[in-house]
């Protein structure tokens, strides 16, 4: 059934050309810095990159859409230049490129599932279109709720610091202004830690499994630098629970740990929406907790109780 009910090539090509024309005409009205010929160039060079990403994702189950998006940042950002809004143009181009490239790998994985389950590819494609249309409405609404509910949305050290926004903006700035926009000694630090990561990974591979578990993973060490260390206690508690669970029943821990982790992630993600609605309504919490250092706490006590 899967092989008989395929989508015609002419339909795929026509749809891509139609979407390219639509994006070329509409995106410059949303982002004036992103000229129509920038969008056209992206849609011309995107198909081979999308094929490479889909092929690589099929082999490794790892999509590199963000990497191709960064390529668009540097390409379009440098082309536009700082005088013509190169940062905005580069970031918008990144979004266009990532959507094209990631869609190819996502559809490949979905069609593989359809092939294994003997589902109709046309039905799957229609479902994808419906889901995409829903996302075009739901995603802006969710962003608007967060943006209106939290006044410090996107600000560093807030509840939602949006760390990747800062990272991608910095990359766009480098693409427009060059390495001179980086802080002093930034490249030297990059070179040093790049070499250190290679050395550490090499040592881990040569040390064997028993010794390698005591050697830190550079990628895991890099994550707090991206999103901050505020989740360290959460990670510690989760790791401790998993460690104890494996001690008690390793078979069940290996089987159900991913399901438990997925439930916790989904639960927190879903709760963020009611939390945003409550904040948008201006509801104040009945109590507030704050942890202070001993010295600060003594100063607060002295201020509240001057006679004691």
UniProtKB/TrEMBL annotation:
It comes from the Eukaryota. Its main location: membrane. The chain crosses the membrane at residues 7-30, 36-59, 71-104, 124-147, 186-203, 223-245. GO terms for molecular function: oligopeptide transmembrane transporter activity. One of its GO terms (cellular component) is membrane. It is found in: Membrane. It is a multi-pass membrane protein. Keywords: Membrane, Transmembrane, Transmembrane helix, Transport. Belongs to the YSL (TC 2.A.67.2) family. PANTHER family: METAL-NICOTIANAMINE TRANSPORTER YSL7, OLIGOPEPTIDE TRANSPORTER YGL114W-RELATED. This is Metal-nicotianamine transporter YSL7. It comes from Punica granatum (Pomegranate).
């Amino acid at each position: 059934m899967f092989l008989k009910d395929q989508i015609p090539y002419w339909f795929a090509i026509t749809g891509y050309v139609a979407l390219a024309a639509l994006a070329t005409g509409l995106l410059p009205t949303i982002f004036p810095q992103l000229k129509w010929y920038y969008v056209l160039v992206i849609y011309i060079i995107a198909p081979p990159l999308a094929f490479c990403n889909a092929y690589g994702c099929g082999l490794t189950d790892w999509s590199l859409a963000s990497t191709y998006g960064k390529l668009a940042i540097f390409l379009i950002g440098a082309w536009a230049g700082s005088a013509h809004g190169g940062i905005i143009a580069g970031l918008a181009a990144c979004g266009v490129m990532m959507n094209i490239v990631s869609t190819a790998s996502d559809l490949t994985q979905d069609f593989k599932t359809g092939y294994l389950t003997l589902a109709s590819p046309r039905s799957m494609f229609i479902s994808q279109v419906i889901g995409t249309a829903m996302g075009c409405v739901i995603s802006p609404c969710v962003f608007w709720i967060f943006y209106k509910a939290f006044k410090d949305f996107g600000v560093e050290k807030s509840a939602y610091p949006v760390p990747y926004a800062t990272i991608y903006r910095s990359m766009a700035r480098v693409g427009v202004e060059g390495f001179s926009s980086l802080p002093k000694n930034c490249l030297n630090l990059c070179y040093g830690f790049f070499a250190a990561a290679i050395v550490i990974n090499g040592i881990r591979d040569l040390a064997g499994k028993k010794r390698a578990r005591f050697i830190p993973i550079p990628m895991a060490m890099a994550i707090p630098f991206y999103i901050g260390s505020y989740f360290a206690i959460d990670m510690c508690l989760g790791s401790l629970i998993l460690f104890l669970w494996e001690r008690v029943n390793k078979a069940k821990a290996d089987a159900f740990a991913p399901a438990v982790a997925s439930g916790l992630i989904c639960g927190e993600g879903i709760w963020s929406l009611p939390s945003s609605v409550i904040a948008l309504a201006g509801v104040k919490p009945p109590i507030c907790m704050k942890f202070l250092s001993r010295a600060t706490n003594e100063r607060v006590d002295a201020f509240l109780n001057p006679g004691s």
